[in-house]
Branched-chain-amino-acid aminotransferase (Priestia iocasae), 287 residues
Amino acid sequence: QWIYLKDEFVRKEDAKISVYDHGFLYGDGVFEGIRVYSGNVFRLEEHIERLYHSAHSILLNIKQTPEEMTQLIVDTVKKNNLESAYIRVVVSRGPGDLGLDPFNCPEPQIVIIAEPLSIFPRELYETGLEIVTVPTRRNRPDVLSPKVKSLNYLNNVLVKIEARLANVSEALMLNDQGYVAEGSADNVFILKKGILYTPPTYVGALEGITRNAIMDVAKELGYEVKEEPFTRHDVYTADEVFLTGTAAEVIAVVKVDGRLIGKGIPGEHTNRLLEAFREKVVADGVK
Ligand code: PLP
C-alpha cells in the first residue's frame, strides 16, 4: 500500500509524520473521506470544494491548487490499483513548536491514504441499525461551523464511545437546543407521510456529500425533500429513519432509544433510495 506524504508516495510502514505536527498536537487541520466505486471517484469536485472551504475557514493555506489536489487523489488511487476504495485526505497545519500559534507552522502537511473499504457488516444493511441519542452535543455554529470538516473530532469520538457503552454501533447527537443534528460521522434523514426531512446545516450538521446526493436522488424520484429542524420525538414517530455517509452510504435505522421505527425493519423508501443511490454512484464519478 502506497501513501502520499511529503510530495511522494511512500510505503505504509514508512509513512510517518512529526510529533510536532499541530494536527497531532491540537487536532488543527481538515480532512475528507471519499469513495471510489468501480474505479470512479465519487463527487470528487464537491469533496475538493469542501476541503478547500474548510481549510480557508480556519486560515489554513493549502499550497497545491484544487486541480493539483484532484490529480494527487486520482494518482493515489491508481498507484494502489484500487477499483473500490475509501480515500482519506488529511491536511494538517503541519509541524511547528509546542505552542498553539499556527503562524509558527510554516507548511501544511498533506496525507492521502486509499485503501480497500471496510463498511458496516452486510447483515446490518438487511436488518437495519439500532441507535441511541447521547448527551454529547454538537458544537454551536458560532464556535465552529458544522460545515468545517476539521480534524477536531472529539465530540464525534465521544458520541461513538457513548454508542458503544450503550451496546449499539452508532448514535445521534443533538445540538444545544435539543434539535437532532447528526450521527458521529453521518447525516440523518427521517421520512414521514412520504416526505423526507433532514436537519439544515445550521442546526449542526455537516453538509454531507452523500446527504446531498440522496436529496438529489429523492427529488429525481419525486419525493418532497425538506431541510427542517426536528426533535427526538419526530425521529421516534417517523415512518422511516436512515443515516447517510461516505463510508456507510445509506443505512436504515430500525430502533432509536428503544423505540421501534415503523415496522422495525428497513423501510421500502429507504431501500428504494439506496438502490437509486447505488445506480447514481457510477454515473457521478471521476476516472
Ligand atoms: N457528518 C459528519 C460529522 C461526518 O464526519 C461525515 C462524514 O464525512 C458525515 C456527516 C457524512 O458526510 P459525507 O456524506 O460527505 O461523507
